[in-house]
Replication initiator A N-terminal domain-containing protein
Amino acid sequence: MSLLSLLSGNGFVMYNKELAHTVSTNGAIVFGQLCSSYESFKNKDMITVRNEKEYFFLTSEVLQEETALTYKQQLRAIKELEQGGYIDTKMMGVPSKKYFHITDKIIKELVSEVNASSSKREDLNVSTNETDSSLAQRANLGMTKGNSKPDQNGLSIKKKNKKEQYKNIKNNFVNKEPVNNDEIIHKLTNEYRIKGLSKEVCLRVVKEVLDSKTEVENFGGYLRACLENTLYKSKLKKGEVEISLSNGNGKLDLYYDWLNN
């Protein structure tokens, strides 16, 4: 058994390094625990909605037990998260309890990071293509004058560069437009969060789609299909939907088989 396997389980709190640099280490630790608590309350239908915002309560005692942070450390971390725009808090109920709301800011930042990484890969591909073009020209210069045979080294370089160019084109989406994709990603992740997927799962699906090497004509349609498949498998795992092996015509449902393969 690996060391990570021994350490994993209830002993871990989600910790985002970028958020720690932006806010503080304690702020990132508290935020990770808030995300975990939100998922727990969401699954138990214990979310409170006020002004179209989802709230859940968490006591300082529970936070201290889960994070080992003292009450003063918690107060400072929560204040930093509020000032950074990552959470909202509200005192509600009798007796009064502190309720938390996680904003969409972290999602927008993570999606921007994914798109920035994708743009860097595109820039690298453009640079590689320019280099390939230069090498191809030099390969043409390797041809001897007159009717003599072409230089074999130059010809092999040219063939290799054509393969690399094809590979670079294949590794990118056909219609990858960062601005439009941002809007599509924001709209669809919000839609499927309402349908029941967690923020983390939605972001993981988005990352896998952006990292995919599959050529896609319709990015929005492809992302929606991936999110829909993920939602179906989530409901299937929770027993919220029944398994169907037939499409109503007595034939095997290939869509269902694809989900399980």
